Amino acid sequence: MTKICVLGLGYIGLPTALLLAKSGFEVIGVDVNERVVKALNQGQLHISEPGLLELFEEVRWNFTAQTAVPEADIYLIAVPTPLNTHTRISDLKYVRSAAEMIYPHLQKGNLVILESTVPPCTSEKLVIPILEKSGLKAGEFRYVHCPERAIPGETLYEMIRNDRIVGGIDDESVASARTVYSSYVQGRIYLTDVTTAEFVKLIENTYRDINIAIANEFAQVAEDCGVNVWEGIDLANKHPRVNILQPGPGVGGHCIAVDPWFLTESSTKTGLIQLAREINDSMPNYVIHLVREMLGDIREPTLTVFGVSYKKDISDTRETPALKFIQLAENEGYKVKCYDPHVTTFDYPVYSLDEAVRDSDCIVLITNHDLFKHIDPATLSMRRRNLIDTRNHLDDTTWSEAGFTIKTLGDGLARSDASRGVAPEQPLLPSSKATTKGV
Ligand code: SAJ
Prior knowledge:
Bound molecules: ligand SAJ
Helix content: 25-40%
Number of domains: 2
Strand order of the largest sheet: 3-2-1-4-7-8-9-10
CATH class of the largest domain: Alpha Beta
Strand content: 5-15%
Largest sheet: 8 strands, mixed
Radius of gyration: 24 Å
Structural class: alpha/beta
CATH superfamily of the largest domain: NAD(P)-binding Rossmann-like Domain
CATH architecture of the largest domain: 3-Layer(aba) Sandwich
């Protein structure tokens, strides 16, 4: 049986390891975190994703976790590549150390796969030279970069269904990698060279970041023009060649908010990419500006943040825009209480709904969890009934009937209208809330 060693048992490495185990490979998962290894060997998962527990239980017989790298036929690296937030340069220490752990075991004909997201040329300049410390030349061992493309919240589904890009150092490498991936990938597998594969991954996420940035800029322009941006984007997207994403409180997660910087470190010609990052990073500042306008000068103002995960219906809080918003609010003297039915651990305490809204002056919806739609606003006991909806997520009619004054980011309503709780005039076209849902 072909033996695969997967290095890094996180959001990408673990689901990949389990899918490979299901496909009949003998899989050894390696992680430097002893607690993760121990938990997995005792049958406990440290990440939650739809279908992951069921898959784990199905393939446990064919999967073991350990801290040391064993001899294997194939090595798959899926370790994190964080951003150094001071220098805005990728921190490749985990990739470097994974390669250092592999090379003493590397044999002629073995395949090494890098799935971690890296700046262009990382394989050529950093990873392959470390692997060559084995005494083998690239080509005597096989090497590919196959960037992961699955979206958190639908990881397993997308790992199976999405198309994959495999960039290899030679034909034998891509052919071997194709055999591995076609054991569980139902999408198409496209072949290219290593550096192109590194580049493709980064431009995918950068394109999405720039698209969200323009939506965020449109939201602010729409305010100045007295136009509802949600309806505007919905209508613009009826054009066959237009697909604008949704505005919001900023871009979080460990991918879209990070990867564009991996491109900027590789070139001096990245003005647009940097600007988009800055626009998205400034959205929490814009939201605090909306709070100021809504509440004016009140004594001991208290805010309730609805949703602290970086996006809807998941528990992941990495790079969440909620964190910057809360810090800005505290610096301006607001007391902040968080409510998030999906999150248990966060930098700030997460309260029950009743506790989070008690004595609050305003709810600020940051994350558009589906569960928030089921809250009956009439039952909320608050000091003042204000709502700032940064995702156009909650139903205006239900909340205004419960006595809430509502400001939706980008709704184009001046504060004087919003604070009077004036509903927008009956639109000539169906309301964008009826047709457009926050992403
Ligand atoms: N967001 C908006 N408006 C939108 C869409 C998203 O404000 O219209 C925000 C989200 O709320 C979130 C952030 O952007 O805070 C990022 O969320 P996301 O759903 O756009 O993406 P990620 O980071 O969860 O996953 C992305 C995906 N990349 C692309 O869609 C091009 C995924 O396929 C990648 O595998 C993943 O990055 C990764 O690991 O790189």
